[in-house]
Every structure is written in structure tokens, then in C-alpha cells.
Design brief:
The protein is α/β, with parallel strands linked by helices and 328 residues long. It has a single domain, classed as 3-Layer(aba) Sandwich (Rossmann fold). The protein is built from twelve helices and 17 strands. β2, α2 and β3 form a beta-alpha-beta unit. The model has no long low-confidence stretch (mean pLDDT 93).
């Protein structure tokens, strides 16, 4: 489906962007893959590591609409992964998150429409489902912008979203921190009851490709992934460390949510994914979703998908195997 196409990833030097770029280069005969990001040093590192003539590097910020418009010329598909995401930092620098995660997302939408991009996919987060922190709130807003972006260029530029949980091995994650600080004497735990959803970078790439292949425009694609207690994660990676309970930090939830009860009323369950369909019949001709509706089934009343009530749990042994397979 992507053979012969020009692809662009915003935030392409981040954990997902870099992993997904390798996935695309390994599996498709792309015409060109453009990495759009702010950090020229990471771009130079990536260029040296990948050594692929199909790669192009574009220094720029999603806050800069003219730069995006220049970068999107001739692009067929955009994956929008650029975001500010460090929750505690963003709680104290709120408008910086707004400028990148909200205004930057609108810039991506405008540039994609102006340059005739065929498909645009937003990489979102479980923090966007009933958000309690600024990061989640900006990503919820970004999702809304993307879904309603379909009204500006119907049938020409399609916008959809994927939403998933914590990524195993992502840069700046607690797992990366624990691995780099091998055998710590003490670890800080916010709350022993805390649970989180976990996904591998490979699973994230598979989700994105499923969404790209099946999107009509306006959907949110959500994977079925395992949960794990934070305390079990520490037991698996740093079993000898003394645990210090420090309490939940500003902007944190005890448990995460990937699909709300309100969204479940207009969502479809597939074998490995949930698909949230848009509600607005003013913007969307609902017949365009008939294919995916036929493949799945409706959810029961009051269904929600949360990390503490999840039926699928990640065992310590499986986590350690995943970490061993992943090169930090």
C-alpha cells in the first residue's frame, strides 16, 4: 500500500518515530521517507545509523505553519507523532504544551489540506481519555481537531487517530531509567495500586498500519493490550531495590483508560482493536464506516476499557523477555 509513496513523520527522531521509520524502510519500497523534527543532532545520528538513500531530513517545528507547508509538498501520507509529553514539566509550562500539541496539530491539518496529502494519522495516548492533566487535555483536543479536520477537505484528505498506552522501552520512560541505572538500592513508587497499559514499539507500528489500511477518516483506533501494576514492574526490573512510596504526582491517574463509556456507545470491537466512530452525522456520511462495522460487533452498555479492569495482564517474566529483546 505504501510502495512508491512519499511518507512524512513529524517527531520522527522520537522513540516511536525512529522505530516506525525503520519498520517502514524494512517492509516497503518507499519513494521517500521524510523525518520532520526540531533536533538536528538526533537527525544526524539517525542518518548515520540508518544509511538509507530514501531518507530525507527536514528541520522544523510543528508550530511553524510555513515550514510544514514546505515539508508536505508531494507527500502522500503523514504520521503526526510530534508532541511535548513530559507530564510534570507540562503542568508547570502549560502554554508550551498548547502551542505544540494543539496549535501545532492544527498546523499539520492545515498544511496537509493545502498540499493535498491523502491520509494523515495522529499518534495519541491513553492520557487523552478523560484527561486529568494538561498533556492529556492537549492530546484530547488534538484528537478532536483531527476528527473534525475531515470536514475541511472531504474525500481528499482523510484524518484519523490511534490511541495507545505506555510504550515499553521508549526514551525517557521508567523502564529505560531503571535499565540504565542497573541494580538501584532504592526506587520511588507513587502508589502500590497504580496500573498502566503497556505496548511494544512493534505493536504500535502494527496498530498504525492497521489504522492506515482501514481508515475512512474520523476514527480512533485503540489496541487491546495488557496491563501491569507499577509495583510488579519494579519487582521485575529491580527486584532487590527498596521501595519508597512518594504519592501520586501532579497530573497523574491511579489507573489509565483507553476507551471511555461515552465513546463505547459509538465504538466497534474487533479481534485485536476497538474502533471509535465519529458521532457527527453533519460532518460524516456514516455509510463510509459500513465495512469496519460489518467486521466487528457493538460493545455492551456501560463498557469501558481501563488498566485496572483489563482482562489481559503482563507477567513479570514476559516483561523481562520483552526488555531483553529491545535494545535500549
Amino acid at each position: 500500500m505504501l510502495n512508491g509513496k512519499t511518507i512524512l513523520i513529524t517527531g520522527g527522531t522520537g522513540s516511536f518515530g525512529k522505530s516506525f521509520a525503520k519498520f517502514l524502510l524494512d517492509n516497503y519500497k518507499l519513494k521517500k521517507l521524510i523525518i520532520f523534527s526540531r533536533d538536528e543532532f538526533k537527525q544526524s545520528q539517525m542518518k548515520e545509523e540508518f544509511k538509507d538513500e530514501r531518507l530525507r531530513f527536514f528541520i522544523g517545528d510543528v508550530r511553524d505553519l510555513p515550514r510544514l507547508q514546505r515539508a508536505f509538498v508531494g507527500v502522500d501520507v503523514v504520521f503526526h507523532a510530534a508532541a511535548l509529553k513530559q507530564i510534570p514539566i507540562l503542568e508547570y509550562n502549560p502554554f508550551e504544551a498548547v502551542k505544540t500539541n494543539i496549535l501545532g496539530t492544527q498546523n499539520v491539518i492545515d498544511a496537509a489540506i493545502d498540499q493535498g496529502v491523502k491520509k494523515v494519522l495522529l499518534i495519541s495516548t491513553d492520557k487523552a481519555a478523560q484527561p486529568v492533566n494538561l498533556y492529556g487535555s492537549t492530546k484530547l483536543c488534538a484528537e478532536k481537531l483531527f476528527i473534525n479536520g475531515n470536514s475541511y477537505s472531504p474525500g481528499k484528505t482523510r484524518f484519523s487517530c490511534v490511541r495507545y498506552g505506555n510504550v515499553i522501552g521508549s526514551r525517557g520512560s521508567i523502564i529505560e531509567s531503571l535499565i540504565k541505572n542497573s541494580n538501584p538500592e532504592k526506587v520511588s513508587i507513587t502508589d502500590e495500586r497504580m496500573t498502566r497499559f503497556w505496548i511494544t514499539l512493534k505493536q504500535a507500528s502494527d496498530l498504525v498500519m492497521f489504522a492506515l489500511e482501514n481508515m475512512a477518516g474520523g476514527e480512533i483506533f485503540i489496541p487491546k493490550i495488557p496491563s501491569m501494576k507499577i509495583v510488579d514492574l519494579f519487582d521485575a526490573i529491580a527486584p532487590k531495590a527498596k521501595k519508597e512510596i512518594i504519592g501520586i504526582r501532579p497530573g497523574e491517574k491511579l489507573h489509565e483508560m483507553l476507551l471511555t463509556k461515552e465513546e463505547a456507545r459509538h465504538a466497534i470491537e474487533l479481534d485485536n482493536y476497538f474502533v471509535v466512530l465519529p458521532e457527527s452525522t453533519e460532518i460524516f456520511d456514516m455509510d463510509i464506516f459500513s465495512g469496519i462495522i460489518k467486521k466487528g460487533k457493538e460493545l455492551s452498555a456501560d463498557f469501558s476499557y481501563t488498566s485496572d479492569t483489563n482482562k489481559d495482564w503482563l507477567e513479570k517474566e514476559k516483561l523481562n523477555k520483552l526488555i531483553a529483546d529491545f535494545k535500549i
